[in-house]
Amino acid sequence: MTGDVVVIGGGIAGITVAYELARHGAEVTVLERRDGVGEECSSGNAGMVASTHALPLASPGALREGLRYMWRPDSPFYLRPRMRTVPWLLRYGLASTPGRARAAGRLLEELTQRGLEAHRKLQAEGIDTGLQNRGHVDAYESAAGVEHGRAEIESRRARGLPGELLTPEELVELEPTLSRSLAGGAYYPDQAWCDPVQFTGALAAAAADLGVQFRNRVEVLDFERRSGRVVAARTTKGRVPGGTFVIAAGVWSQPLARATGLFLPVEGGKGYHVELPESAATPRLPVYMADSRVVATPLDGRLRLSGTFELDGLDERVDAVRVWAITAAGVRVVPGLRGVEPVGVWRGLRPCAPDGLPLVGAVRSVPNLYVATGHGIGGITTGPVTAQLIGELIRGVEPSLPLEPLRPDRFRPLLFRPRDGSPVVGESVAG
After folding, report:
1. What b-and-e string marks burial along 185-211, b requiring 16 or more CB atoms within 10 Å of the CB?
2. Is residue 427 exposed (0-12), middle (13-18) or buried (19+ Cβ within 10 Å)?
3. What are the per-10-residue average pLDDT scores of the chain (431 residues)?
4. What is the Cβ-side half-sphere exposure of residue 121, based on CA atoms within 13 angstroms?
5. Are 214 and 35 in contact (CB under 8 A)?
6. Widest CA span of the chain, in angstroms?
7. Which of 79, 109, 212, 362 is deepest in the core (most CB within 10 A)?
């Protein structure tokens, strides 16, 4: 591949795209508005590189659960009511039908499984992303959780993937730090995890070795267009020309896309983590606490408790109730954590599309513009496979996965005209 590419966003999506393009010969510049790469949502996720629980955000079960939880500020899902989120929620409801959810689930299963394989390929290439290939544990506090686990294991086995349902005794034998009062668990030996900071740092260094230029503290304000194409990004540090542009800026992709006429209905799904110092109570494997939707991930010298989905636009305030709920869930499942003082609290905005699928692909109305965002809670798993797909498109190679369900322009705005005839732009609820 030859040509110059400008990637906007230095998170997991942007870095993996930059690396993929550079290894095929492109001259790549990454523009990042923060002081360094991976400092926004990418730095604080749970680090689970997993094909388990590959369920779309939009599904009948998730919709029912969301409605049940939405007014509880300590629940796994919380919505702060705002008029601006109404169109997104309407789209979400329309996408939560059984048929759409099944189709989205099959695609997410494929994306996450390929993402897991792509992570291992990076490791095999000698990039020290810190990938740990020792599996994950699910911990169930209720009989309903055990039944969900049983159904997932049966589904995975039908696809030739391993998984083992565990009795309470077997669960504690595998992971002795867990509570003896749990209803059961599951073990998925083929899953992996990594420290997101190590992953982004190692991949950025590998990309730099291939000639990728990283320009930090550069915020894109607008685009210069000519003959329907983007020819330059207008930034806080001047004009940045390019032949091809990739928007990979997480939740901040929406206003950038709007500057090109593209409508991206991306909302921020705020997530939190609480970090505790390493102790005798630290599990040796990641533990997904299915009933509370909290993940405990052992990282170098610390334990990260991650969870919650708070739909609140671009609000980055820390809600102490959410922090408390994550910590309380961790103590219930790992009793030895009681009394361990946190060493850090973080929050970040996951970019979420209303149908629960990423926004990946070419923009048909702008021939040299591509988008890689909307990965929700699965960005670290699907980042490398997203990069492969974007790379295939830019190189003119037939994509290795069907991209029609992921196309970034699958949603469109709708023009409403009031009775007085004056135009008012609103949002359609169907893509």
Report:
1. bbbbebbbbbbbbbbbbbbbebbbebe
2. middle
3. 84 98 97 92 93 78 67 71 78 85 90 96 96 97 95 93 97 98 98 97 98 97 95 97 97 93 92 96 97 96 93 84 94 97 94 94 96 94 97 96 94 54 38 42
4. 12
5. no
6. 71
7. 212
